[in-house]
Input
Amino acid sequence: MAPNQQYKMVIDYILVQKHNCTIKNFTINGMEKFKFYTDHRLLTVSLRIDNLRINRKFKPIVTKNINSERYKSELNKRLQNLITTQPNELTPCPTTINNKIQKSILLAVQKSLEENDLNTVSQKTENDNELQKLHKKRAELPKIKNKSNNDKIELNLVSKVIRQKIRERDEKEVNKIITETIEGNKNIKTMKKRLGLGTYWTTHLVNGEGAKVYDRNSINKLATKFYEELYEDNEKQDNTKSNTDPTGAQAETEQEPEPNLELEPDEVEPAIKGLKSKKSPGHDKIINEYLKMGGDTLAKVITNLFNQIRTSGNTLSDWSYTDIILLAKKGDRHKIENYRPITLRLTLAKLFSKVMQTRIQPILNKQQFIEQAGFRKAYSTVDPCML
Output
């Protein structure tokens, strides 16, 4: 604004900490309090951030704080009605059983975590009593009216002490994790997960036109389009290869009658115990550790679910939906071609595949030729050389 209040001047620069901002509105601030001998004036400017970029972190699911006994008892209570059914009562469908299992597991985890959170809070209040007193003191100091210089100095000192205490506490926690990793001869990957290193989301990707894409939905669309086109070409090549049959003859195999044997809990329990720990879950957020801590009751309910699926011959539609995450490989992290997709299936779907594989594997081994030594248990590549 010109000194005569009639002409508007062009704003050359606005100093802000964030970029990609646009001016929403501005007003003249304090014209009557300041005397200017140039054309510069003070302005109050409202900014709208067009593309807000946040470094988000993946929060790993922690099973260390779960009370296993409380979790097991809560889960048994919620699943009891699926085991004890009345003679005239209809058997629930597989989808209902699956949803009931998922809901019961998540509620049991929540209950066990709530009980443990109360215990951890009581422990923290004893250990961090001094830090809590400083927080209360800092909250009371700004409420003093007509603060003196000593009050202001005391407020600054209390804030500095709080920051120092927090830094010391965080450093002790980091040193504790590193010490446990070294003394326990554990994997560095586990230590990085506990410290939260290398788990930030990418801020943007570069599309085919060279433009940067910041919006999360646009990034998902860009990745989806890239891998759809990539795998579409591979599917066309596979179809052309499979349609060409050089011999023109089909192998005749004798089909044996399928034995109508139901799955037993003795088959499901070893499969549950054999699930690997510290694996990422699917969209239901149920990890392998939840099944391993479930006990006999959960194994019986899962066995009932698998038998119904096996009898019907159709898997659940919910098992067809998976989460796909991208892991950065070598090269520029902002180019989609430098990422590798990984599919995260549901835990129950993986367990069903494992149980069926364990049952089918002996039958398949009998049908294999003795010359086939690769990818078989108790066989080596040296065996064909001795035939």
